[in-house]
User: Fold Malto-oligosyltrehalose trehalohydrolase from Neolewinella marina.
Amino acid sequence: MNDTFPYLPLGPLSAEPDGNRRFRVWAPLPKSLDLVLLTDDDQTLHRMQPEGNGYLISEPVAAPAGTRYGFYLNGKRDKLYPDPASRYQPSGVHGESEVIDLPPVADEDWSGKPLHEAVIYELHVGTFTEAGTFAAAEERLDYLRDLGVTMLEIMPLNQTSGERNWGYDGVLPSALFQAYGRPEDFHRFIRAAHERGIAVIVDVIYNHLGPEGNYLPSFFPVFTEKHHTPWGAAINFDDAHADGVRNYWLENVRLWLETYGADGLRIDAVHAIKDYSANHFLEEVSALADRIGKAQGRTIVTIAECDLNAPRYLQSRKRGGYGMSGQWVDEFHHAMHALLTGEVRGYYEDFGEVEQLARALKDGYVYTGQYSPHRKRNFGRKPGPGITPAQMVVFLQNHDQVGNRMEGDRLLGGIGVDKYLLGAGTYLLSPFTPLIFMGEEYGEENPFPYFVHHGEEALIKAVREGRAREFAAFQTEGHHVPDPQAEETFRSAKLSWKQDDRILEFYRRALHLRSAAPAFADISVDQSGPLITWSIRGGKYTACGNYGDEALTIEVDADELLLASNGATLENNLLQLPAWGFAAIA
Amino acid sequence: MNDTFPYLPLGPLSAEPDGNRRFRVWAPLPKSLDLVLLTDDDQTLHRMQPEGNGYLISEPVAAPAGTRYGFYLNGKRDKLYPDPASRYQPSGVHGESEVIDLPPVADEDWSGKPLHEAVIYELHVGTFTEAGTFAAAEERLDYLRDLGVTMLEIMPLNQTSGERNWGYDGVLPSALFQAYGRPEDFHRFIRAAHERGIAVIVDVIYNHLGPEGNYLPSFFPVFTEKHHTPWGAAINFDDAHADGVRNYWLENVRLWLETYGADGLRIDAVHAIKDYSANHFLEEVSALADRIGKAQGRTIVTIAECDLNAPRYLQSRKRGGYGMSGQWVDEFHHAMHALLTGEVRGYYEDFGEVEQLARALKDGYVYTGQYSPHRKRNFGRKPGPGITPAQMVVFLQNHDQVGNRMEGDRLLGGIGVDKYLLGAGTYLLSPFTPLIFMGEEYGEENPFPYFVHHGEEALIKAVREGRAREFAAFQTEGHHVPDPQAEETFRSAKLSWKQDDRILEFYRRALHLRSAAPAFADISVDQSGPLITWSIRGGKYTACGNYGDEALTIEVDADELLLASNGATLENNLLQLPAWGFAAIA
Assistant:
């Protein structure tokens, strides 16, 4: 009877006692593979030997950390290919790989962060600081801890073309983007965060590969034409040779969680992971994450970006689900955004009623089976038993909601401080897990436009034209699509760190309130016209939001005003809630 | 806040008190729709009025049962379209529809058949008898009852082109194929079966539409390019307008189960029902079937043809599954077939070991995660808790396993009676639900080749060439691909009813044994070399199969030989099991 396809480690393996090491590649496609070890002026070749199931392994060779290497395919020496499992590409996607040995993870007293204790902060390393490196980001950790952040979500670190990228054009998922520093820097960054009680999770992309420098198809059938996604042929999770492909990505899971000792993954657009097999790939990811967490005695989280309102992703594996710890809930954002901005274009046509935000506060999802005019179909389903509010990750903005606007303009400029703080209060004191997009907490005014740095002219042209086409209807006098390829566009996205103290103080106090209360079990939401009130965290305080243009006076059973925006006051059990005002009372 | 897309009845609605009735069509695509009522020499037009959500409804009109009708689209009178919800097409797929009123279902004392009491018999109405009609099939019901059959699975009844078809080229799922009789005949056939204690389930196709006479795309977006199947664009279950499409198919579920009072559905190739929404279409089907069964106080079953070894289809909806009552288990067949025939081509390359059949007897599935050489990936998953053996439907042959061979040759001719009875004993006395393919029980020798009766020359040519290409490697002296379009091919598939008494008696006794024992809870399977023994149904008897060329003598703790093939004997606790022999002992 047949065995299972073996899941084996890839790339440069751990050194043997004599200091030598083997290299393994999964490469069922090429006829032959030569490992090429590079020195400054020479190279040595080692023919890789078949191990079965499409795996190839080298003899033990002297290749200490720092060795540069690559592969020749099919006996041809005209092109040196990077290692598909490369951990570092000192000269970018098209260049050679470098052998990286990272120190063991030894975080004393660190046990991770479950989502119900998480306040997530999403950051892009290249624009978070002027230098755009891990070393520079490390200097901001004390600030983040003091703010109340307990979990960093780092936008993708995988190797993309060029020197700047949002990260979603990755082609070598395990290679740390050389523009941000070296693997050792990120390893140290995580330790520094842990020392401050902050977990670090990594944004990973398992649904597509970037358009430039993707050499994986020369090694293995990474794509399948059985399914398609917005990026073309889908990643092969259920067609012939899918297990080698799965092993390839699961090795990436291991790298971040075991080797770097990160605390979890944010998995990009899981609805584009097309898998009809009996074991959905995400079940394998969550099971592996759980195993690693159990073995190391710490909490590891997996957060899916999911556009389906399908509880299956969040449900435990025992209950037939995929076992994700959490998911991004775009609908909570859309419901708030439509109210605060009055925008009704595109998918915002499905939103704009206060009742929808109240519903989002109850269920996380807005659409739980109702007809969506934008999608032109009944959409979604109630989360159902077994799913907790902490599994819903909510936000006032994120890289997508900002960056996918024509000019990448942030919310604050469009709506003003009062509405901004109403939105902030709503999601920071919601029963869900809040995610702050870097700079949002102090009212950053710099935009976060889409930027790339490709090397191929045709691709650059296509990206420029694609953006122009997408926003054709939005271009008006004085407003245009920033050139995604221009360095200036990238530079414009860097945080200014010009802090609006009123906003920063509001965020600090909201997060303090949140952290001071115990994890809540249930929520009670009332909505009447523009007013929504909800009791959270076991009723220790009540939040009130006025999503209308008229001031409201409300009789309340409370005498303490814990947090207020827009001049809300509480006297003699009367809460004066100005237009678009927010208050937390007890 | 939005409502849910409404699921409404389609076609000619029930008559109102004055005898008139309205017609409803879901047709979001055409600009206008006219209901056309036909008389022998005239026609009257009634403009259909929008009801919202793409539904259109007529004024009440005089249209008693028997009225012929159709629709003009977009004000054009050059083509009369059949009703997408047509129940009958007296002159075929391209012609007008007929208003059908069926009598209410009143089956006294009939409560349906759960799968653990089912012995299924698959029949194709057109070839089951010389006349090829329901009326003729009805005359065989006593024979089937006496054989031990408790459930008929009728190959698809939907309207296809021409006068003969396997049924999988249907284009009007609710129209009863005119070659078999009228709807009233099938309604009566079900009653006649119920009177004999036999349930009737219908083979339905929700994953594709036939190549000729499909006018549905003129009415609504029945396909989506989001997903593809072997037949092209997938049926639209999760794209814009999917709910109207779902309602259209769910109306078909209601027709068979409520209006005809059938006992269940066998759902064709569910792995080709592509649905990424939060509510999989099959969950809606099983939930609807359960509601109908509950309302009418009878058992209704849903059996999926599924090629995924994915327990999700069988798991209850509460446990996150799709709630199918059962599924066809091709792998049980393949494991037996490869042993009995020695065939190793195509998907049989994954089979051929006795251990695999033993595994199938334990789990239903053979591949529960192991590497499949044919699929080139790890395949399947253990059924897991909550799934019962009766949910697995197994067979020695079925229309596909016979008909998808070049000449449609049945198993018996290839392997001889001894091996045939070994296979029969194995699956009939397995813990699973057996399915007999018509004629198999008495050793029918006529083939069951693939046949069609299209009207379009290009299509006929394409089908002929497709078959020739598929079997190019199999054509040898004296063996060729029967012409699928030829009437002779269809006629050659009709049962001869020439009965081999030895085979028929074996089937009768095996089914008698099966029915005499209580439903079993667990199975114990032992395998050693070519011998498999298993205790079934609470250990009331033990089955023994010798899947090898050598006779075996086995010491057993039994003194009664209940069923034997190939001259097996039991004396003094010694079971003599000849090569390829089968015995059931107690």
Q: What stands out?
A: Chain B touches chain A through 46 residues (CB under 8 Å). The mean pLDDT of chain B is 95.
